[in-house]
Write a structure and sequence with these properties.
Helices cover 37% and strands 18% of the residues. The protein has 289 residues and is an alpha/beta fold. The protein has two domains: 101 residues, Rossmann fold; 128 residues, Rossmann fold (3-Layer(aba) Sandwich), CATH 3.40.50. It has a six-stranded parallel β-sheet with strand order 2-1-3-4-5-10, with helices on both faces. The protein has a four-stranded parallel β-sheet with strand order 7-6-8-9, sandwiched between helices. Helix 4 packs parallel to helix 5.
């Protein structure tokens, strides 16, 4: 009887090519190549900050996980303003930056505050408000929110740099959303056609009130770019310079004061000129219309 391996069939030919049993007797192996880990300064980001910097590996993570990294950037909130100083105290070999709040009171060598100038943002907002009321017979804009003479003064400077005859209504309010919205509605009732508010829930409520009356609103955060400031902190760290025990303040020259958002109720012509105003500030020139 002939051996089964000699049967001339297509299947038999395939078996012959690899041995009668269909295998060569050798174990097959698969070679895998591991993807190398990214190289660079390890930076953990807590919160919605979007930061990029050459020479750094930046990942979004929890505050607890970020303690393993070289540098931690955390956006300031009521919670992180308490938890980040606690983390910096517990992890002295990790450097922390609280973006949007002061850290000077904590005096920790591995904790810095990262701030974008409010006065310059208010001045830019004022210039845009002045531009928005240009040509109106009764030019009125309003500041709505808690009393802050310094910020209101910067806002007034911006308005009058563009439209000197504009009336600025100061509609003070306690820092509560319902009160801020009511103040905005009152300001519109007094003839204001642009509402300016500082930040947070008060500003959101004030702008809601303005929109109910079909009037545009502005707030400080529309003209502040904390991501730009945070990226500079990362670049400093890449070059071996870490900040701590201080606040780092960024102004227009750094690019951190610019037009981030404008109310859609403002005309396109205002949007174009607003960016020109931001460039004037960045170059150190006096705002003018």
């Amino acid at each position: 009887m002939k051996h089964a391996c000699l049967v001339a069939t297509p299947i038999a030919l395939l078996l012959l090519a690899s041995g009668c049993g269909g295998t060569t007797g050798r174990a097959s192996s698969t070679t895998t190549t591991a993807t190398p880990a990214p190289i660079g300064l390890r930076v953990g980001v807590v919160g919605p900050l979007q930061v990029q910097a050459a020479g750094a590996v930046i990942e979004s993570m929890s505050l607890r996980a970020a303690a393993e990294e070289s540098l931690v950037l955390a956006e300031a909130t009521p919670r992180t303003s308490v938890s980040v100083p606690e983390a910096a105290l517990a992890h002295p070999s990790t450097h922390y930056a609280l973006v949007g709040a002061s850290a000077a009171a904590h005096r920790l060598p591995n904790l810095a505050g990262v701030l974008v100038r409010d006065d310059q943002a208010a001045r830019l907002a004022g210039a845009i408000a002045g531009l928005a009321v240009r040509g109106q017979s009764n030019r009125r804009v309003a500041w709505v929110g808690p009393r802050d003479a310094s910020l209101v003064g910067a806002f007034v400077q911006g308005v009058h740099a563009v439209e000197p005859g504009t009336t600025i209504l100061r509609q003070w309010s306690i820092d509560r959303p319902a009160a801020c919205k009511e103040s905005a509605l009152t300001a519109v009732g007094r003839g204001a056609t642009v509402i300016m508010a500082p930040r947070g829930l008060c500003a959101a409520a004030a702008l809601d009130g303005a929109h109910e009356r079909n009037q545009p609103g502005l707030e400080l955060s529309d003209f502040q770019l904390p991501n730009v400031a945070a990226a500079q902190v990362v670049r400093d760290a890449v070059h071996g310079r870490y900040h701590g025990g201080e606040d780092i303040v960024f102004g227009a020259a750094s690019g951190a004061i610019a037009v981030r958002h404008l109310d859609p109720l403002l005309p396109e012509t205002v949007a174009v000129q607003a960016r020109a105003f931001a460039e004037q500030l960045a170059s150190g020139r006096t705002l003018s219309g």
